[in-house]
UniProtKB/TrEMBL annotation:
CN hydrolase domain span: 1-261
One Pfam family matching this protein: CN_hydrolase
Protein name as annotated: Carbon-nitrogen hydrolase
PROSITE patterns: CN_HYDROLASE, UPF0012
Family the entry assigns: Belongs to the carbon-nitrogen hydrolase superfamily. NIT1/NIT2 family.
Keywords: Hydrolase
Gly residues bias (residue ranges): 90-101
Length: 279
C-alpha cells in the first residue's frame, strides 16, 4: 500500500480559503498513492480556538467539497484530516431530536460542534467520518467548545485491511486502540496538531500503539506556528514491529511510503502476543 502523509505547515496569516486551495492542489499531486493523509484541523487551525465557531462547517461544506474533488481527481483514498463540524440539530432522528427543547442524541452537551475527521474514496464519496472522542484542553479549548464523539470508526483500506480512526490527543488513550483492534484494525490513522513542546510523547506513543497492538501507525502532524503554538512535525509511519518506516522533520513535508501490509499478518503469526491477552 503506497501512502502519502502530508505534513502541512501554516501560520496565522494565510486565509482559510487560500489554505484549502493550496492543500487541495497538494492532494492532487499525490495521484498514484493508495492512501493520502492530512493533519487534524489544518484548515480552521488546530489551536485557533477563537476562530472555530466562524470556521465550523457541515461535512459537505467548502472544505469537505474541496477534499472530495481532490480525492476524485487524484484517484486516491483521502483521509482529509479533520474539520470543526457544525452538526444539524436533530440530524440523526430519534424520538425527541429536532423538536424544540428536544435532545439530539449525537450532541450530548448541545453545542453541535465536533472535531470531525473525514475520509473520501477515490470516487470522491464520503466513506467515513470520525468525531474525536478525547477532547484536549483540560476544561478549556476542546472540552469547552466542542462536543465529544462517541463512536469507534474503522474504514476499509485497499487489500482487505481495516484502518481505525483517531485524532491527536486520542493517542494518549490505549484502550481506544484496543477497541479498534478488536474491530479488526491492522492500521491506525492519526491526524494531529501536536505541539513541539511534547513532540517526544507523540513519537513515543505512536511507537507504543504500533508495538502493543501489532498494527501499522500512520500519524500525520502539523508544522509551523499558529495561534502562538509551535507545532511539532515529526509525522511518522510506524510498522507493526515498531520500526519507523518514515519520519518527517519540523517543516512542511510529504512522506511517500510503501507499506507492506502482509508483514502485519506475518509478524502476528511469528510473535503471537495478542493471543495472550487476559480479558
Ligand atoms: O496530548 C497532547 O500533548 C497534545 C494534544 C493536542 O494538541 C490535541 O489533541 O489537539
Amino acid at each position: 500500500m503506497r501512502v502519502a502523509v502530508l505534513q502541512v505547515a501554516y501560520g496565522d496569516d494565510e486565509p482559510m480559503s487560500a489554505r484549502v486551495e493550496r492543500v487541495a492542489a497538494l492532494v492532487r499531486e499525490q495521484a498514484g498513492h493508495d492512501l493520502v493523509v492530512l493533519p487534524e484541523l489544518w484548515a480552521p487551525g488546530g489551536f485557533s480556538y477563537r476562530e472555530w465557531a466562524d470556521r465550523a462547517q457541515p461535512v459537505d461544506g467548502s472544505i469537505g467539497s474541496a477534499m472530495s474533488a481532490a480525492a476524485r481527481d487524484a484517484g486516491v483514498l483521502l483521509h482529509a484530516g479533520s474539520i470543526i463540524e457544525r452538526g444539524v440539530p436533530g440530524e440523526t432522528g430519534g424520538d425527541t431530536a429536532g423538536e424544540p427543547g428536544g435532545a439530539d442524541p449525537r450532541s450530548s452537551e448541545g453545542r453541535h460542534l465536533w472535531n470531525t475527521s473525514l475520509v473520501f474514496g477515490p470516487d470522491g464519496a464520503l466513506v467515513a467520518s470520525y468525531r474525536k472522542i478525547h477532547r484536549f484542553g483540560f476544561g478549556s479549548g476542546e472540552p469547552k467548545l466542542l462536543d465529544a464523539g462517541e463512536d469507534i470508526v474503522v474504514v476499509d483500506l485497499p487489500g482487505n485491511h481495516l484502518a481505525g480512526l483517531s485524532t491527536c490527543y486520542d493517542l494518549r488513550f490505549p484502550e481506544l486502540y484496543r477497541r479498534q483492534l478488536d474491530a479488526g484494525a491492522t492500521v491506525f490513522v492519526v491526524p494531529a496538531a501536536w505541539p513541539a513542546a511534547r513532540v517526544r510523547h507523540w513519537t513515543l506513543l505512536a511507537h507504543a500503539r504500533a508495538v502493543e497492538n501489532q498494527c501499522v501507525v500512520i500519524a500525520c502532524n502539523t508544522a509551523g506556528t499558529h495561534a502562538g503554538t509551535e507545532m511539532g512535525g515529526h509525522s511518522q509511519v510506524i510498522s507493526a514491529t515498531g520500526e519507523a518506516l518514515a519520519m518527517a522533520g519540523t517543516a512542511e513535508e510529504v512522506l511517500s511510503v510503501e507499506v507492506d501490509m502482509d508483514a502485519v499478518t506475518t509478524w502476528r503469526t511469528q510473535f503471537p502476543v495478542l493471543g495472550d491477552r487476559r480479558l
